[in-house]
Amino acid sequence: MNLDRYYLEMALIEAEKALEENTYPIGAVIVDEKYKLIAKGRNRVHPQQDATAHAEIDAIRNAGEAILNAKVIREKFTIYTSLEPCPMCTGGILFANIKKVVWLLNDDLGFGGYRKIKATNVFDERFNEVELIEEPFEDLKKRQEELMEKWATNPNNVVNLRNALNK
């Protein structure tokens, strides 16, 4: 069994829940070195009315003490997410000392920031400690793309909210 696939599928389930809650369809899962599930998270921006309630941040918050302990004992956690992390989430990942990041879909058109921030070479020391795997499974990537297409028609999508104001 491919554990990366297993946990990316779990992140997709969280993304689907986010879409059902009428918010951006992103899910994230954190596991330890033995692939034990530490925490799940999903985008909760609209349900919580909190612009910082992104999936990766939600998972890091849900990991609580486990994240802090992992930093102290240098345990290597992995975060699986359904979309490339934004700049805020990238910062959260680096501060949480997560050592492996795996995502299903690059986010070149949105706020995908992980690769952009890494390319600045500003945090080389931190980024050099993190293993990155992007878009490893075409079929799962397609499922995330389908969620993004559904999000485009959701009334809470910022484009649709703006259009409603202009009517």
UniProtKB/TrEMBL annotation:
Enzyme class: hydrolase
UniProt-listed Gene3D superfamilies: Cytidine Deaminase, domain 2
Signal peptide: none
E.C. designation(s): 3.5.4.33
Keywords, comma-separated and alphabetical: Hydrolase, Metal-binding, Zinc
Gene Ontology terms for molecular function: tRNA-specific adenosine-34 deaminase activity
Source organism, top-level taxon: Bacteria
Domain CMP/dCMP-type deaminase residues, every copy: 2-114
Organism: Bacillus salitolerans
InterPro entries: APOBEC/CMP_deaminase_Zn-bd (IPR016192), CMP_dCMP_dom (IPR002125), Cytidine_deaminase-like (IPR016193)
Keyword match Zinc: yes
Record flagged with keyword 4Fe-4S: no
Name of the featured protein: Nucleoside deaminase
Family matches, as PROSITE patterns: CYT_DCMP_DEAMINASES_1, CYT_DCMP_DEAMINASES_2
